Amino acid sequence: MTTAHAATPIALTIAGSDSSGGAGIQADLKSFAALGVYGASAITALTAQNTQGVTGIHLVPPGFVSAQIEAVFADLDVAAVKIGMVAQRDTIEAIADALKRRPRVPVVLDPVMVATSGDRLLPPDAVAALRSSLIPAAAILTPNLPEAAALLDEPVASTEADIEAQGRRLLSLGCPAVLIKGGHGTGSTSIDYLVSRSGTLALSAPRSPTRNTHGTGCSLSSAIAAGLAKGEDLVTAVRHAKAFVSDAIAAADRFSVGHGHGPIHHFHRQY
Which of the residues 85, 176, 189, 226 could staple to 112 if both were Cys, CB 3.0 to 4.6 A apart? Predict the structure, then answer.
């Protein structure tokens, strides 16, 4: 007699690889695993990087990005998708084409445009394709303050009213929800703003005094995808993801990794 098992929640990350292991695909898979979700991946770019910066980017051909996505969907029951570094316009179009065939799978889109170190990861000619092809396909968009401003060609918002207004303008690009992350802000608390058509929800957490913040944006978006893969509603998934990443940042100084912005501690709950 065989024992019936519950379905395994599966999430797919479509993003770039970080050779130092703190951000990108590596951070996403760690977040999935820490939150009890099986992670699959489609790599859009290889980066030569460490905690101090990016020294090289090698783009994966768009056709092979498509092949990775199709291989995963052909065999695995993917319940959520996270998209990070998309690297170039042709890759954006390839991803968008693949997702059009899976309209019921929720997509978390992290518009990775600039690394923590300040290195630009998305060329200007790809931003229009991101706006027109991927943002409308997303269940939620997760820009930080500089990324939200860049997507709108506006100055970085500095007040709560300005942040909410930018969130509403981002909604007009076609996604139902936007989480504008406050990690680049100032003050003793880090406030993220979840803006949707039903209103704005402010989510605050104490700002941890650490420089080990490499991969925070990747980890937050993948944690949201993990929650969606487990069947959580969007607000619950965002709340749980915010708590997970805040705790991972608070525990980051348990690590001594690299000489720049070190990684957060994805497995703070496990060890």
Answer: 85
